[in-house]
Write a structure and sequence with these properties.
single chain, 296 residues, alpha/beta, Four Helix Bundle (Hemerythrin (Met), subunit A), four-stranded mixed beta sheet, 10 helices, 11 strands, globular, DNA binding, CRISPR-associated endonuclease Cas1, CRISPR-assoc_Cas1_C
Length: 296
């Protein structure tokens, strides 16, 4: 079932009644309701939003990710359910005890999928991508030759232009890419938790200050889907240096966008659950391949 992403940028009070999310405006006498079981994400982007703890309890029970934005209107933190899988402790142990060869092989699969999707994206935009195809075929265990970095140089120069630098604080469309990647990261973290895995323990990323290393790993092949959406929104608002409400609303459509995975078309949010479930099987020894989407 496709879950809804709800974005709040005005002062609302959010509460619970009869398993319904009750949305009450603080400025007007307007009240709306949404079944909690239909919600996948809540994005809260206003300092005067309030909510009841009973609602938070019910959101957790339904594995809903609550994403909080900071004063610059960028997603900055998130609440996740810490008890969402019946075999969680067993899967934690399998994840913690994963061997280095296994993690290096999983990272190889991840980078192959990422570069292949980048190549597909470029070709869809009418650009050549033969170098990326070659890089994808030559990724070694653990990507010790950094094919990911080599592919990135070619990818960004052809997708945006030779003068473009992918940087958190760089020129547009970096602002759209940043926003989209943060949303994607939260969606991956939610899917990992739903599959009984710890988002903190990565297969490649291992920064001690990063609480979502595994999410940063698994989101890599999904980045081109963000890139495609960000470039389309950028084309609609080429003169906007800062994110507007309309631009954010379009970027939130990422979760419901269709992708091809394992031979079927699925919403990205559903595909993430397939990917994280396959990763869980790899850790437990029931599988050897992560199922990633194919850019089409």
């Amino acid at each position: 079932m496709l879950k809804r992403t709800l974005f709040f940028s005005n002062p609302y009070h959010l509460s619970l009644k009869d398993c319904q999310l009750v949305i009450q405006s603080k400025d007007e006498l307007v009240t709306k309701t949404v079944p909690v079981e239909d919600v996948g994400f809540l994005v809260l982007d206003h300092p005067q939003i309030s909510f009841s703890m009973k609602l938070v309890e019910q959101l957790n029970a339904n594995n809903v990710a609550m994403v909080f934005c900071d004063s610059s209107h960028m997603p900055s933190s998130m609440l996740l359910n810490l008890e969402s899988h019946s075999l969680q402790s067993e899967l934690f142990r399998a994840q913690i005890s994963a061997s280095e060869p296994l993690k290096k092989n999983l990272w190889k699969q991840t980078i192959e999928a990422k570069i292949t999707n980048q190549a597909q994206h470029l070709e869809k935009q009418g650009q050549k991508a033969h170098e990326l195809r070659a890089y994808a075929r030559s990724v070694k265990s653990g990507d010790i030759e950094n094919r990911e970095g080599l592919a990135a140089r070619v990818y960004w120069s052809r997708l945006v232009g030779n003068g473009f630098i992918r940087d958190r604080y760089g020129d547009p469309p970096n602002h759209l890419l940043n926003y989209g990647y943060i949303l994607l990261r939260s969606a991956v973290a939610r899917a990992l938790v739903g599959s009984g895995l710890l988002p903190t323990l990565g297969i490649h990323h291992h920064n001690k200050y990063n609480a979502f290393c595994l999410a940063d790993d698994i989101m890599e092949p999904y980045r081109p889907f963000v890139d495609q959406l960000a470039m389309r929104v950028y084309g609609d608002y080429p003169d906007e240096l800062f994110l507007t409400k309309e631009m954010k609303a379009e970027m939130l459509g990422l979760m419901a966008g269709d992708v091809w995975i394992d031979g079927s078309k699925r919403p990205l949010m559903v595909a993430l659950s397939q990917t994280t479930a396959s990763l869980s099987r790899c850790f437990s020894g029931e599988g050897r391949k992560i199922v990633y989407p194919e850019f089409n």
